[in-house]
What does this fold into?
Amino acid sequence: MDLFGIAAYAAETAAATPAASAVPEVSPVMSGIVTFLPLVAIIVLMYFMMIRPQRKREKETKAMIDALKVGDKIVTIGGIMGKVAKIKDDTVIIETGNVGTPNEKSYVKMERDSIKTVEQKLSN
It folds into this structure.
């Protein structure tokens, strides 16, 4: 059934224009690559903007904690400020200040990973 001669017109146009058949078709493989290219670009961008800097900060923090010495002034994650009095395997004993007299000092035992920053390194 030919509705208003559309099929006949399409057949005449296709036969009359040889340049239309000369246009190369895009391969399905190339089409798939172009489709997923923006997704790959976003993942690579997220890696360089978020994951890589976080790993760098973790590495710097680990190096700071490994270089910790007795006498260093530190700040913990909870905000406790003090001086390192003793270091064991995974724990640190921190002198936080005087309780009453200068001879009475308070000590806090905590994990090494709870140290946020080393404020100042004191020379022994």
Summary: The longest strand covers residues 91-98.
